[in-house]
Structures are given as C-alpha cells and as structure tokens.
Ferredoxin (Cohnella phaseoli), 83 residues
Amino acid sequence: MAYIITSACIEETAGECTLVCPVDCITEGTSVDGEHMYFIDPEICISCGACEAVCPVGAIYYEDDIPASEHAYIEKNRLFYHK
Ligand code: SF4
Ligand code: SF4
C-alpha cells in the first residue's frame, strides 16, 4: 500500500510534495489520459504521509482512503510506472 495522487493535482502541480518526500519517489509527468500531474512510485513510497500534509489542494490519499470518485487514479498511477 502506498499514497496516491488524484485529480486535484492536475490544476495545481506546484510540487510541494516533492520537497518533503524522504525517499524522493514523486515524479512529474503525463497520465495515460494526457493529464499533467505528479505520480508516486508505489514500490518506493514508505507511506509516511508527509506529502499528504503539505498538498495545498488535498490531492494525496492513502490508497485505502481514496474516495470512490478518484479510484481511477490508482490505475493511472500504476500505468505511469508500468507502461
Ligand atoms: S503538492 Fe499536491 S497539487 Fe502539488 S504537485 Fe504534489 S500532489 Fe500535486
Ligand atoms: S507518503 Fe511519504 S514516502 Fe510516500 S510519497 Fe508521500 S512523502 Fe513520499
């Protein structure tokens, strides 16, 4: 289980999350649907929650806590790292 970045990031993308991640696992990029946003590598994330605390738009959730309306971003994140 890891943290996942969801749709609110698309409008923001200032990158505060990357400044606090202790394992440097957050990357800027483009989703399979062409959305410019950030992604968390689930194989490196240690689920410390630091990124969630600083995101100004509440885009980051622990995987188990993602609202149903944002579940598509679990798969978009997986595809970003396994194209
Ligand atoms: S802090 Fe939030 S909005 Fe900003 S890049 Fe990270 S996930 Fe996206
Ligand atoms: S939960 Fe911690 S390790 Fe995972 S992406 Fe956020 S800051 Fe990095």
User: Anything to note?
Assistant: The beta strands are 3-5, 26-30, 36-40, 60-62. The two ends are 20 Å apart (CA to CA). Residues 5, 9, 12-17, 38, 55, 57, 59-60 surround iron/sulfur cluster (ligand 1) (CB under 6 Å).
